[in-house]
Design a protein that fits this description.
This protein has one domain: NE0471 N-terminal domain-like (2-Layer Sandwich). It contains 5 helices and 8 strands, in the order E-E-H-E-E-E-H-H-E-E-E-H-H. The strands form 3 sheets. Strands 3-4-5 form a 3-stranded antiparallel β-sheet. The longest helix has 10 residues. The protein is globular, with a radius of gyration of 21 Å. The relative contact order is 0.16.
Length: 148
């Protein structure tokens, strides 16, 4: 059917569009919504999250720094074959140098979906979404479910 502006593109029912778009995140909403979040900046111990589904996650600051989700850190992890949270591997023959333990110097909430940290190595690019934090939960229960 033509209108005064010219031919119209064929219309598609909206349900057909929904069938084309893949489901991006199959995680149940309760599993990625925190009930409470405690960032222990002063003590320097890390982050504790109680999730709305009853699960509890505890992350040390070094673990979170090694899991930084920014493009730069993600690319470096991918090239070295590390998983999020794994510390960098020492190059063969390299001598270990002293490096201060990773510690967050500041933390801020990003909207209603994430946290951002400023680290003692001056890095602050990573935005840790609730979904990402749940995905990288280091507890034994989550470790076993990732292995399955």
């Amino acid at each position: 059917m033509d209108s005064e502006e010219g031919p119209r593109p064929p219309s598609r029912p909206t349900h057909a569009i929904l069938e084309i778009v893949p489901q991006l995140d199959p995680t149940p909403r309760l599993a990625i919504d925190p009930a409470s979040v405690k960032v222990n900046l002063t003590a320097g111990t890390g982050v504790e999250i109680d999730w709305k589904d009853g699960h509890r996650s505890s992350y040390t600051f070094p673990y979170l720094r090694d899991a930084c989700p920014c493009a730069l850190c993600d690319d470096e992890r991918e090239k070295s074959g590390r998983k999020p949270g794994e510390p960098p591997k020492l190059a063969p023959g390299a001598l270990p140098l002293f490096k201060a333990a990773a510690k967050a110097t500041a933390a801020e909430q990003v909207g209603k979906y994430a946290l951002r940290f400023a680290w003692n190595d001056n890095h602050d690019l990573g935005i840790y979404s609730w979904a990402y934090l749940r995905e990288i939960c280091p507890c034994g229960v989550c470790d076993r479910s990732k292995a399955e």
